[in-house]
Amino acid sequence: MQFKHPEILYFLFLLVIPILVHLFQLRKFKKEYFTNVKLLKELQLQTRKSSSIKKWLLLATRLLLLAALIFAFAQPFLPAKDSKAQNNELILLVDNSFSMQAKGSEGELLKKSIQDILENIPENQTVSIVSPSKSFWDITPKSILKELQNLQYTSYSFQPDYLLSQVENKKPNTTKDYIFITDGVDVSSEKTTDLVQKGTLYGIFPKAENSANCSIDNISISAITDSFYEISVSLSKNGNVTDNILFSIVSDSGESVAKSTISFEDDKNEKVLKINVPKKDFKGKAILEDNSLPYDNTFYFSLSKPKKLNVLVIGTPEKNNFIRKIITPDEFQLTETTLDQLDFSSIEQQHTIIINEPENITPSLSNTLLAFYEKGGNLIIIPSENSNVQNLNTLLSQLGNLRVNELQQNEKLITEIHFEHPLYKNVFEKKIHNFQYPNVQTYFPVSGTISSILSFEDQSLF
């Protein structure tokens, strides 16, 4: 047995005092002679014996009480069986990830954990504190009181193996005891299991009172109209979220752009919210207001007005009039040129190339267009009545499984729109099946395994 305050044991000398008091109280009885009365003699003997026993018991009780009080103040304890471990360095691995913002019964988990460290570690105890974002080596907690109390939350997750490797690199060839302080559900690994088996790893796992939480996972543009962006907000929940949650979009200037309340269905943990915002440059954030973790309630995003797409039209000016009505200057940067004046170096800067009614496509242009298409460019070919079909098919065979046949001179109705084609995305508000069918007088029959945009009345490709 050892004592935390052995100097208090000197007070055991005070046990002499009750002994002295007892000795001074012992008196010899003075003899008084009476007549020979047997009853009085027996009574005298009993009184002397009982008085002596009581005094010795009282002395023993006083001595034991005083000794017990002195031993209590000296704080006895039994030393650890493994006496070698008393010289081990103490390493605290503290989780300061955003999840430690959750509130327990006594406040935020991280702040309460730091408070426990300051209160329970002796003032002169040297420790090292390692967190995912910051480390303190060979310090006493009181010496860095402000730094610990102002330790910020971080987006870095609590990874025990990484932190243990960091400690080993900093302190090789030393024996250490580790204490984990984290709300992580599963921090087990090969390294931690080995430390647990050696008896040098201990864990403190604070728990949040409310495990239910909502978060904003992603924001993307789902549709574009003339005046608005339709944005899709992906939300998710963890736990039982029953209350309606306020959602808002706020610009950097503090202007509220949109507000809504959301609720989750009981059997679904994900939800997509559709919101329209003005079609203009925007910088701001989406905000959720729930009563749980705050770090995942804000999502910053920006919207930029689309840059004008570069469109090159190869054809004669008089035939390009209808293209100018479609390719308007508010969304496109239109460049027109004839085939003989084409600047091949400008093709790489284009997003889309329209070849309008070519009679013949030269091999050099064909190779350039093929390279442009393979790099992700868009290519539109509008044949003319005088186009060389064989020449067209040479290019089309290199672009894909597509072939045009000789020009046909008969009338046909266009009766079907294939709404599922990607070209029609966000074009129609609803599917239309009963409309005034347009017709053609001449056309090139098309064959091949391609996705159709329009179909004739006989289901052939337009």
TrEMBL record:
The keyword Transmembrane applies. It comes from the Bacteria. Keywords: Membrane, Transmembrane, Transmembrane helix. Residues 1-76 form the Aerotolerance regulator N-terminal domain. The chain crosses the membrane at residues 6-24, 56-78. This is Aerotolerance regulator N-terminal domain-containing protein.
